[in-house]
Amino acid sequence: MNIIGIESSCDETSAAVICNNKIVSNLIYSQDIHEKYGGVVPELSSRAHLQKVLPLVKKSLDEAGLKLNQVDLICATAGPGLIGALLVGLTFAKGYAYSCNKPFVAVNHIEGHIFSGFLMDDKPEFPFLCLVVSGGHTLLLLVEGFTQIKKLGSTIDDAAGEAFDKVSKLLGLGYPGGVKIQNIALNQKTDFADFPVAQCKNEFDFSFSGVKTSVLRFIQKEFEKPENIPVDLLPLIAASFQKSVVKALIDKTEKALRRFNIKSLSLVGGVAANQMLRLGFQELSVRYKKKLVIPDFRFCGDNGAMIAFRGMQLHEVGIRNSLDFNAYPSLKDNTFIN
Predict the structure, then answer these.
(1) 7, 82 contact by CB (below 8 A)
(2) Which of 16, 264, 271, 278 is a Cys-bridge partner for 128, taking CB atoms 3.0 to 4.6 Å apart?
(3) β-pairing, 128-133 with 2-7?
(4) pTM for this one?
(5) What is the C-alpha to C-alpha distance for residues 59 and 240, in angstroms, rounded to an integer?
(6) Which tens digits make up the pLDDT trace of 198-237?
(7) Hey, what domains does the chain have and what are their CATH numbers?
């Protein structure tokens, strides 16, 4: 079976092809135009998707050695994400499916991330504990099957990646914040300042708005303005902040590890590329003797391969989406996070 997956939920345009359960193409265009604005500008994102989606689809099919009508299933991200950006990929995919008379499946972006570990040779084993960490989402999940996903906790305010972006902007490091903070914090002491992370009523929920505010208050107290921070102290502040966020993610995951009987552990999403977080999960895996699956860096961020794979799973359980004029389909019947 030949499957194409199209991803356009934020600032990456991606098209990937899976042939007979093997990834034969996974092309990603990252929009660097947003860097000078310190974050993603939705209108610019949508325009960039419009420019890139057709060339990427054509190139991905060329790499797979396929023609347009040789694709058996067309999948696209339908949310969550930036509405304008999502509509570009969705309407393109629906038009493609209509023109070739092929089935179309709308995919939940988060579920694409959840099962991105299955793109690896060594795959998660059910049931597994999954931490989804990205710029817009932070969720802790118990995954019992491809259609059985139990939400244990989520963020009640800022997502972890969002906190990285905001603190990076505050420190004058730029966007994307996760990469900037990780780079400047490398090999630095992590006890320069204490930035507490708020506790939540639900023991598995996350809150990162407070730690961002804690960094701001520290800067105001010690230096009055961010521009007054000595250059040699920026890495120490960044390292202390990173430690607080990573510790909160690992502590909640460890609490769930103690509570639930699982076979494996998975870390997914854009923030899963953070080296300190990956090392923390490796330590958890060893300590609790659980198999650990973290996708390769190319599958941590938004990518078409995870959308194609998730679409394939949904197709196998009989899910199809109509090609009517409602360009933004409901994900009610396509989403299994409970």
Answers:
(1) no
(2) 264
(3) unpaired
(4) 0.96
(5) 43
(6) 999 999 999 999 999 999 999 999 999 999 999 999 999 9
(7) 2-114+299-316 (3.30.420.40), 122-294 (3.30.420.40)
